[in-house]
Amino acid sequence: MALVFDQSNTIGLLTSKKDLFSLPHDIHYLNCAYMAPLSKRVVAAGRSALERLENPSRIQATDFFEESDAARGLFAELINAPDPRNVAIIPSVSYAMATVAKNTSFCRGQNLVVVEEQFPSNIYSWRRLSADAGIELRIVKAPLDTGSRGAQWNTSVLEAIDTETALVTLPQLHWTDGTRFDLEAIGQRARDCGAAFIVDGTQSVGALPFDSQNIRPDVLVCAGYKWLTGPYSVGLAFFGPAYNDGIPLEENWITRRGSEDFTNLVRYQDEYHVGAIRYDVGERSNFMLLPMLTAGLEQVLNWGPATIQDYTGKLTAEAIAPLREVGCWVEEDGWRASHILGVRMPSHINIEHLSNALLERHVSVSIRGSAIRVAPHLYNESGDLAALVAVVQDIIRQ
């Protein structure tokens, strides 16, 4: 079957935002789940920040706090969190997970629930804790039946949580293929069993609407360089009331009450700022990264995650049927989001051969496990998906 795509830049009433980016025209970049390309707006914020650092006299004491508070406020708005002070500035997902591990009570014989092959930054802290404290690491495996994989996997997660579960930690979307987890149902089950509920929102928040007051995570962690469209090495984490009185990984000065008064920093203060500010990474007032992250958050809020879902959904809709027709597996519509499309190839396909063919035709996606992870955004157009489908069809039909 010949595949015909709409080659215009307009899908429904939505228009590609490719002109806001500097992506080469001959690259089909379908890889935001790997790393978001920096928009012209974010790059401009970085350049301006760098120029400011040429003369540090321009940096005032208030800048150490106001720029951090701006990022907290934007993230709180994005996830519908009522108080920005419950948002911490972190360097990575692993940093936040280590903070959670330090501040969660565990007893020998309890268990932790995770899902199979979730991202390593949300695994290694729990492997260490399991080994050191005698806690069972309960890994919920993906079903072998791909016919109803999402539904079965969600059911298995719910069944794995019991009254001995101390903590449940999982993504909203699986990072390898985008399978969706029902966070409202899983979170309710965790609360019913007295377990902490921790969400890695790195592959969802920013592109998929997230309401913290409906989902009610105890902690939500997000790296900034994917769907928040910011730079690498800075992220954000929401901490709920259960962690209001915790102990941070670092004992740094800026998270203490009264730290705004530089003249009194020698009068050491043991009391932390209210909420999650205590969990901020040292030197959180990064004068390069924070302005870029703030610019990224502003543009995501301006676009709106619902718009991103609508646009990417219409973009990928034309590709799913022809991929399935040549024997590829794609998760059922009800158990995936629009911005990550996991495509599993027929078993006889050589993945390395496929990867090379994609590179040769300038199609940028990620190979994760046995899946091709396709992650479009507003800068993509129909021709990008057409290029991907053409490569896959050619490889399978050889």
Describe this structure in words.
There is one protein chain. The longest helix is centred in the C-terminal third of the chain and has 21 residues. Helix content is 35%, strand content 14%. By secondary structure, the protein is of the alpha/beta class. The strands form four sheets. It has a seven-stranded mixed sheet with strand order 4-10-9-8-7-5-6, sandwiched between helices. A four-stranded antiparallel sheet has the order 11-12-15-14, with helices on one face.
Spans of at least 5 consecutive residues whose pLDDT stays below 50 are: 1-8
Helix content: 25-40%
CATH class of the largest domain: Alpha Beta
Number of domains: 2
Tell me the name of the CATH homologous superfamily of the largest domain.
Answer: Type I PLP-dependent aspartate aminotransferase-like (Major domain)
| CATH-derived topology of the largest domain | Aspartate Aminotransferase, domain 2
User: Quick one: how many beta strands?
Assistant: 15
Element order, helices and strands? EEEHHEHEHEHEHEHEEHHEEHEEEH
The neighbouring-strand order within the major sheet is 4-10-9-8-7-5-6
Q: How far apart, in Å, are the first and last alpha carbons?
A: 15 Å
Output mean pLDDT. 94
